[in-house]
């Protein structure tokens, strides 16, 4: 079995685990605040990163670029919190579909702030991607399908800001620094409101919150393993299987059936993202010296 196939299989598992976390969040958010769910999750992320943080402390937190770190942390916080909020407000498949707008926000922001080439392929991919988003939220058909659709879109924008900042920071900052800032400060942003929002869970709630945190942490490390084994373009494409997982979990757990607009929009978004990835891969391959 080649490393690419191994990477794809690990990527499929990681996508399944993160989709399962979203489904569990849809259950947990009935009783617990979004920030409490995020805080418990970040506690486990912090614990998993603790060996690296201790090994590199205090040098791992030294930076000459505080503003990009602040933007990245703000974007990550918005993405993580709205990701939980979105599944409480929308069907699981719809929330998952709209979160894929991150791909097109990243392409747009990278062109504007990182100077990445604004090719015809990228422009067409971004346009098709946002067309898919519009199909899902369908403005003009009974107004906006739901104002709640703006929540996962805000999360997608936050995630894109975080990704673009990481691309910029990775040129000068160590992996330990990038890991440390997110593990500590996103947890703090979610943790400070716990003085007012904390609700002591019962046994079921405790098991649910801990399970979500463990599964999310496991999914994160499996995702890293997948990227180490396979080509990034191949492994990244496995993320779109989240839609299949979300549709199945939504049907089994919540009796949700995605409507035609969601399915057509999802197909448009996936096609545009894969088209953009393939064209970019070919362009880069053509530029490599033979």
Low-confidence runs: none
Secondary structure: number of strands? 0
Based on CA atoms alone, the radius of gyration comes out at: 19 Å
Apparent shape: globular
What does this structure look like?
With 290 residues, the chain is mainly α. It has one domain. Helix content is 78%, strand content 0%. It has helices at 3-28, 34-56, 66-89, 92-99, 102-113, 120-137, 150-169, 175-191, 194-197, 203-229, 232-237, 242-254, 260-287. The radius of gyration is 19 Å and the shape is globular. The two termini are 27 Å apart.
List its salient traits.
EamA-like transporter family protein, 290 residues, transmembrane, globular, single chain, mainly alpha, 0% strand
Question: Quick gist of this model?
Answer:
Belongs to the drug/metabolite transporter (DMT) superfamily. 10 TMS drug/metabolite exporter (DME) (TC 2.A.7.3) family. The protein has 13 helices and no strands. With 290 residues, the chain is mainly α.
